[in-house]
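pinned: reference chain
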Amino acid sequence: LHKKIMDYSTNVTYLSLEGHVELEKYRYVYFVTALSVYMLITCCNAVVIYVIYTNERLHEPMYIFIAALLCNSLFVAAGLYPKLLSDLLSEKQIISHGACLFQAFWIYTNGGSEFALLAAMAYDRYVSICKPLQYATLMKMSTVKRILFFCWFVPSCEMGISIILTYRPLCKYKLNRIYCNAHSVAKLSCGDITVVNLYGLSALTIVVCPPVMFVIYSYIRIIEVCLKNSKDFRRKALQTCFPHLFVFTCFSITACFEVVNSRFEGNVPHLLTVILSIENSVIPPLINPIIYGLKLQEIWNRIKGMIWKKKMHNFAD
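pinned: its structure tokens
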């Protein structure tokens, strides 16, 4: 059995995060890399969000959903990187049982929200392209607000139940990861975890399958409509749909790797486990603002305008 780490003054149980690879040797390399990635994620997402927020012409459903998706990326990064950066500079990589479960709740709730937001964006594109005359009626601002609420509320409820089921006495205290997830913590608990596993798989199915199926259905319908229209119509449709489709594909692949990795942990080389566990918090948050910032002309024009004004201001000074 692994030694129990406990603060007897406060009766708090701590878990040891032992997923780091050769930390003593590469501590500062890891820290600088993680800090650079975190700053890049924060800056790239914040710039696009700021551009959308400050330009009234971009206060349309498509851009509001993009801003919400990028906010979600910032939430995921905030749930991982500050603790990771602290651990990289600490002698002991530990976290309290409660904080570990909260981190798992935060990261995986926002992961579920990302699928829901991508499905909402697919719905927006579907209505815009397949039912343009009904767009103003179907995508009113009140509807957009309800969709956004649903995208965050439902995953938080599902993940909250999972965390409640996972919160039980522990018999082991060594987590072979660099951050927490519910399934890994559940495997440390005493007794049978069949109910936790069954609920986790059910919640995962509900969070992932309906959004994925809806996105696939939406794009089948969009393709059907595009094939019946002119080349110019197809070009404009693909110009707005490509960034979403690319982001959806990247996130689905990285999320799939994380799910498989958490379920089959211990059966793959540890270094690969670490890479698979963190890539979902690196690749999508970096790719999303770059893809939307560069590929959507309206956003890219605004960003270029900001850069040009800054240069002109510096030149005038």
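why pinned: The longest strand covers residues 12-17. The first helix runs from residue 23 to 54.
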